Amino acid sequence: MSTTRLMILGLVRWLQPVHGYLVRRELESWNVEEWAAIAPGSIYHALRKLAQEGMLEEVGTEQVDARPARTSYLVTAAGEQEFQELLRRYWWDYKAPVDPFQVAFSLIWAMPENEAAAALRHRAARLRTIAGGFTAMLASEFMQATKPVHVGWMFELSVGRAELEADWCERTADRIEAGELRAEWGPAGLDERSEAMRVLRAQRERDGQSRPIEE
Q1: Could you point out which of 94, 155, 194, 204 has its C-alpha 20 to 30 Å from the C-alpha of 1?
Q2: Separation between Cα atoms, residue 133 and residue 142, nearest integer Å
Q3: Could you tell me where the DSSP H helices lie in 98-148?
Q4: What is the spatial distance between Cα 32 and Cα 11, in angstroms, rounded to a whole number?
């Protein structure tokens, strides 16, 4: 993944020359598996692949006692170019995160109304717990004494997202409990949707468009 490439190149660039164990230990201290989906086991593979592609250069190997040999890396000119391109791509572009919840939510009609509302309220409570944890961490002496200021800003982003989604979950649960979903997916709502699709399909046929319309 490009995000893994960016992170590995950035860490090697910062710590170089550096071997894979130190890169892995640093990333684990950042908990990247939770917020960047970078598994610790993928780090060594990414280092080797980047070296094969000429993005990193192997500059030495060291071995202590009976431990496995450790290869140290530097970022090459090609790796620096790749790093700068990826860095700016993700700073300037927006890509919506893939959330399995949205896939499940699109099939809301398959859930009993009371369960859907209860699940949304449960999700809201979990999100508020997560936001509270981040908020407490932000105020902690450990955070203020050991973490760079931009890490706190990242936590603030996580708090804002969690609180915003929690509010949405609670509003949506209120709508379900008020019967809005039933009006949409009940017999009358389905008849209305079918009629709207029939009219749309006829309009497209008159316009000479053959692309099918999904139900």
Answers
A1: 155
A2: 14
A3: 100-105, 113-139, 141-146
A4: 12
